[in-house]
Amino acid sequence: MKRLSIIMIALLSVFNTANAQDSQKAKKLLDEVSSKVKAYNNMVIDFKYSLENEAEGVNQETRGDVSISGEKYVLNLMGTTQLFDGKKIYTIIPEDQEINISNYVAEEENNITPSKMFTFYQEGYTYKWDITQNIKGRKIQYIKLTPKDSNADVKNILLGIDNQTKHIYNLIQTQENGTKITITVKSFKTNQPLAKNLFSFNEARYKDYYINRLD
Asked: CB neighbours of 207 closer than 8 A, spacing ≥ 6?
């Protein structure tokens, strides 16, 4: 019995060491991705967005695009534009001729915003080296992130990283209610000649809109 206990302890030690090395390897790759994108002046990304929940019979798919410079971004998705100028978030809804303006509070922001997409993993998640897939000749390495908060709505996130470019290929977020959100990058351009006022909100352009100030 004593010998069996020693064997079990040894096996657990090997397992824990392997897990630690696995986590370190995953974090190293994520840090490489983050370091690379931080070196760009800006990024312009076209992507496919899909939302699926088999139990609810929901299956939606659309395209979107986002321009990012530092913390600032302009996101176009599902007929809505969201602009972040570094201080406030402007959500522009042309269909309703409505604009919602709110202050950005970093510690209260639980969603993965475009500017956080390459750094959100640094707090509140554990990392695990996952499967490798060959997609259209590209080697995509997946990292599985699990929230440390057991009450989080997100069950886990899979980040697919192109081994050659060190860019994110896709993000698959699975929620506790069974909803799966997948964002797949279709085009990734860097250091583009963006308009100087791209990340500035001009209220004069929306004279006929109802402006809801939540700040």
From this structure: none
